[in-house]
Amino acid sequence: MNLIFIGPQGSGKGTQAKIISEKLNLCHISTGDLLRNVKGNLKEEVDSYINVGKLVPDELILKILIKELKKCKKGFILDGFPRNVTQAQKLKDLIDINKVIEINITDKQAIKRITSRISCKNCGAVFNKITNPPKIEGVCDSCKGKLYVRDDDKEEFVKKRLKIYHNETEPILGIYDSVRIDGFQEIDKVAQEILEKL
Ligand code: AMP
């Protein structure tokens, strides 16, 4: 099964992609995590986009994604890709997608969630200082990595990223067969609804 999870920043799509991929034994491919982990001479270029909330160029992310898809011998969940219609069309030429899950929240909810978000530097796991705190402050529950606030999670960049989401990413929903889930519910409830829809 090949799935795409789409949603505004803070909708919980990364958290849900992790839960559902583990349940269904699928690869979880987060393009944001892949980009944050780029090493070597590409790192400076990639950081110049992601640190200010801009999308990296399509050719660059496609190259990284194709490499990752080759490593995945089972089905997958794409988390953070495609981000615009060009990427969606390129993906359509490469591989079939069974379903798109749209996890929806309002911009107001998104800003509230993201500005209290903390992420693991090591494994990319995401926590929320208010609604989903780690068991030990500053330490990842899953891998014991260090938790930090991403540069692009500051309010001014969150607003910019939401604008990109509405203008560039949302139109993808017209290309695929998608189902909408209310992302402003308990994590377990959202996961349960996704599984029901699948
Ligand atoms: P995310 O963790 O999904 O919020 O992604 C963080 C940042 O990585 C985004 O704001 C973009 O700068 C970059 N990024 C992630 N996925 C893509 C993509 N498919 N195309 C272009 N840029 C991306």
Task: Find the CATH superfamily.
Answer: P-loop containing nucleotide triphosphate hydrolases
Question: What is the CATH architecture annotation?
Answer: 3-Layer(aba) Sandwich
- CATH overall fold name: Rossmann fold
* Ligand list: adenosine monophosphate
Cα Rg: 16 Å
Number of helices: 8
Q: Kindly give the count of domains.
A: 1
Produce the secondary structure layout.
Elements: E1 2-6, H1 13-24, E2 27-30, H2 31-36, H3 43-50, H4 58-71, E3 76-79, H5 85-94, E4 99-104, H6 107-114, E5 117-120, E6 126-128, E7 147-148, H7 155-169, E8 178-182, H8 187-197
Parallel strand pairs: 1-3, 1-4, 2-3, 4-8
Antiparallel strand pairs: 5-6, 5-7
Helix pairs in contact: 1-8, 6-7
Task: Explain this structure.
The mean pLDDT is 94. Helix 1 (13-24) crosses helix 8. The chain has one domain (2-106, 157-197): Rossmann fold, CATH 3.40.50.300. A hairpin with a 5-residue loop joins strand 5 (117-120) and strand 6. With 198 residues, it is of the alpha/beta class. The protein is built from eight helices and eight strands. 42% of the residues lie in helices and 17% in strands. The protein is globular. The protein has a five-stranded parallel sheet with strand order 2-3-1-4-8, with helices on both faces. A three-stranded antiparallel sheet has the order 6-5-7, with no helix packed on it. Adenosine monophosphate (AMP) binds at residues 9, 31-32, 35, 49-50, 53-56, 61, 80-81, 83, 87, 152, 161.
